[in-house]
Description:
Blueprint: H1 5-14, E1 19-27, E2 30-41, E3 45-50, E4 59-63, H2 64-68, E5 72-78, E6 82-86
Antiparallel strand pairs: 1-2, 1-5, 2-3, 3-4, 5-6
Amino acid sequence: MGKTLLDIKRILDSNLGKRLTLKANGGRRKTIERSGVLAETYPSVFIIELDQQENSFERVSYSYADVLTETVELTFLDENTGSIAISGQ
C-alpha cells in the first residue's frame, strides 16, 4: 500500500484508535502475532496498546521503516469493509 514513510504515516494517522493485528519478525525464524489498538503516532514511531489478557506488557512501538521493510505487518480490523492490510510494498 504505502510506498514511502510519509504515505505509511498518513495511513496510520487516518486509522488512529482502530483495532489491529500485528505480525512482527521476532528473529531466528520467529513471528510474533499480537492484537491491540493503534494509540498514537509520532514523527518517527507509532505506538500500539496491546490487549492485556494476551500480553505481559501494555504497549509496543515500531518505526514506519519497520512497516516499509516488512519487518512489521499491520492488519486493521474494520467491521464494515473487512480487514485492511498495511505493508511497505
